[in-house]
Write a structure and sequence with these properties.
Rossmann fold; four-stranded parallel beta sheet; metal ion binding; sirohydrochlorin cobaltochelatase activity; Anaerobic_Co-chelatase
Length: about 260
C-alpha cells in the first residue's frame, strides 16, 4: 500500500483564479473531495492560466505549477501511474491544450489516464442541471435565474445553448444560461427577460469559481450584467457562488476520476 501511494497520483488541473476566497471555496474543495475519495493516490495541482500564475507570483509570491511543471515534478517524485482530472467546464481550448501537454509525457509514465471535463456527456448535463435545481429549489416561478458562463470561440461553446434547452426540457422554464464572450449573449438574455417579465432576476456564475468575471462582469459597476439588467428596469440580485461550491458538482468530478480509474 505504501508503495502504491508513492507511485500513483491524480493531477487536478484548473484554469485558476487570483481570488483566494473563491479558490478556497471551489478549487480547494474539489481537490479535497477527490483526495478523500481516492486515498491511495497522491494529489497534485496544476493551473493553466499563464496570466493568473504570473499575477499570483508577482503579487503574492505564490508559485503554482503549470501542467508541464507539475508533470515534471511528478516524474521526479517517482509517480508511475497518473490520472489527470481537469476542472474545466467543457472540452474547449483550455482542455485541448492541456491534453496535448499531457500526451507529450506519454513515455515518461507507465500509464496516464485522462478524466473528462464537467460537461462531456448527456448524463453530465442532466446531473449539472439537477445540481442547479437543488441549489435553487426555492426559486419562485415568477422570478428568473440567469447564469453567466464564460463562453469560447471553440465549437464546444454549443454546450451552453444545449444546456439552456435541456433546462427548459426538464421543466425549468425560469432558468437561463448565457455567456460573457460568446453566444448566448447578454443582449439575447435581456430580450428574453423582456418577454418573460420576471419580477426579479437572480444572477449567478456558471463557472467553477466566482472570480473576476463574477465579481466584475456579472455584479460589478459600469457595464456589468447587473447594471444592464437594472437599466432595463429589472430588480436584480447577484449570487457569488462558484460551481465548485455545489456538492453535486464536486461529486461529478469525483465520478469522472473514478471512470478514468
Amino acid at each position: 500500500m505504501m508503495e502504491q501511494q508513492q507511485t500513483k497520483a491524480i493531477l487536478v488541473v484548473s484554469f485558476g483564479t487570483s481570488h483566494a476566497d473563491t479558490r478556497e471555496k471551489n478549487i480547494d474543495r474539489i481537490e479535497a473531495d477527490i483526495s478523500v475519495a481516492f486515498p491511495d493516490y497522491r494529489i497534485y495541482r496544476a493551473w493553466t492560466s499563464k496570466m493568473i500564475l504570473k499575477k499570483l507570483k508577482n503579487r503574492d509570491g505564490i508559485v503554482i505549477d503549470n501542467v508541464k511543471e507539475a508533470l515534471e515534478r511528478m516524474e521526479s517524485d517517482g509517480i508511475r501511474e497518473l490520472i489527470v482530472q481537469p476542472t474545466h467546464v467543457m472540452n474547449g481550448i483550455e482542455n485541448e491544450l492541456m491534453t496535448a501537454q499531457v500526451r507529450a509525457f506519454d513515455g515518461h509514465f507507465d500509464e496516464i489516464r485522462l478524466g473528462a471535463p464537467l460537461l462531456t456527456t448527456e448524463q453530465d448535463s442532466r446531473e449539472a442541471i439537477a445540481a442547479l435545481e437543488q441549489e435553487w429549489k426555492t426559486l419562485p416561478e415568477n422570478e428568473a435565474l440567469v447564469l453567466m458562463g464564460h463562453g469560447t470561440e471553440h465549437y464546444a461553446n454549443s454546450i451552453y445553448a444545449a444546456l439552456d434547452y435541456m433546462m427548459k426540457d426538464m421543466g425549468h422554464e425560469n432558468m437561463f444560461l448565457g455567456t460573457v464572450e460568446a453566444y448566448p449573449t447578454l443582449e439575447a438574455l435581456i430580450r428574453r427577460m423582456k418577454k418573460e417579465k420576471p419580477v426579479k432576476v437572480h444572477l449567478a456564475p456558471f463557472m467553477i469559481v466566482a472570480g473576476d468575471h463574477a465579481k466584475n462582469d456579472m455584479s460589478g459597476e459600469g457595464d456589468s450584467w447587473a447594471a444592464r439588467f437594472s437599466e432595463e428596469g429589472f430588480d436584480v440580485e447577484c449570487h457569488l457562488k462558484g460551481l465548485g461550491e455545489y456538492p453535486q458538482i464536486r461529486d461529478m468530478f469525483v465520478r469522472h476520476v473514478r471512470e478514468a480509474v
